[in-house]
Amino acid sequence: MEFADLDLSQEYSYADYLKWTFEERLEIIKGKIFKMSPAPNRMHQKLSREIFGVLINFLKGKTCEVYSAPFDVRLPRKSKDDKDIITVVQPDLCVICDPSKLDDKGCLGAPDIVIEILSPGNNKKELEIKYDVYEEAGVKEYWLFLPEIQALLQYVRNGNGRYAGARPLTEDNILTTPILPGFELDLEEVFGAL
User: Fold this and answer.
1) Where in the sequence is the signal peptide annotated (predicted)?
2) Pairing relation of β-strands 93-96 and 65-68?
3) Is 109 domain-assigned?
4) Residues 97-155 pLDDT 10s
5) I need a labelling partner for 28 at 20 to 30 A (CA). Which of 37, 88, 161, 172 fits?
6) Domain total for the chain?
7) Could you report the per-residue pLDDT of 15-40, keeping only the tens digit for each?
8) What is the DSSP annotation of 136-147?
9) Cα(38)–Cα(170) distance, rounded to whole angstroms?
10) 134, 153 in Cβ contact below 8 A?
């Protein structure tokens, strides 16, 4: 089966996704197929590498783990059966602190932190659709990096399960999170590497 053979008006599940063998990278969000960028540009890759490096070093010997794309994050609504999961995403990076969510296929359930790096052409998907998906799924923090303007939007779930107003950060800031006590991401260093 080729990607062109798919009926994009149909609803798909993770069970369908597992059968596909075409080269295109895809995500399924609420049953609908979203084509991912073919390959991230160099700036995207450098930024991802910098953030991953800081996280991997900080998390050594800790329960939380960081993973980079391609890594399937399945966000079940009710049943955890593959045929019932209609949202599977591949965030650029994610931090999972509950080892029971990890299996050979990736992550089953909401990561604690999802990190996306905005790519040209994915603006609407990252800014609107994924924001809603991550909030609904229970992702505690969603970090959206905007490499073109060297900024980061840090969304944090409040007591009502909603993301509070985005905390914009630039190269003058250091990112911290209560999820990872003691963690600091110096944005001047991260963006300076670009």
Assistant:
1) none
2) antiparallel
3) yes
4) 999 999 999 999 999 999 999 877 666 666 788 999 999 999 999 999 999 899 999 99
5) 161
6) 1
7) 999 999 888 888 999 999 988 777 77
8) HHT-SEEEEEEG
9) 28
10) no
C-alpha 109/C-alpha 122 separation (Å) is: 23
- C-alpha count within 13 angstroms, C-beta hemisphere, residue 136: 13
- Cis upstream peptide for 38 (omega within 30°): no
- Polymer length in residues for the chain: 194
Domain range for residue 47? 40-192
Instruction: Compute the radius of gyration of the chain from its Cα atoms.
Output: 16
- Determine the Cα–Cα distance for residues 96 and 44; give it in Å rounded to an integer: 22
The residue written with tokens 């800790």 in the block is: 62
**Is there a domain that residue 107 lies in?**
yes
Task: Read off the CATH number of the domain in which 59 is found.
Answer: 3.90.1570.10
Contact 33, 8 (CB under 8 A): yes
C-beta atoms surrounding 186 within 10 Å: 13
Residue 173 covered by a domain = yes
The tokens describing 112, both together, are 């604690």
Return the number of other C-beta atoms located less than 10 Å from residue 144's C-beta. 22
Q: Where are the alpha helices (DSSP H) in 60-125?
A: 123-124
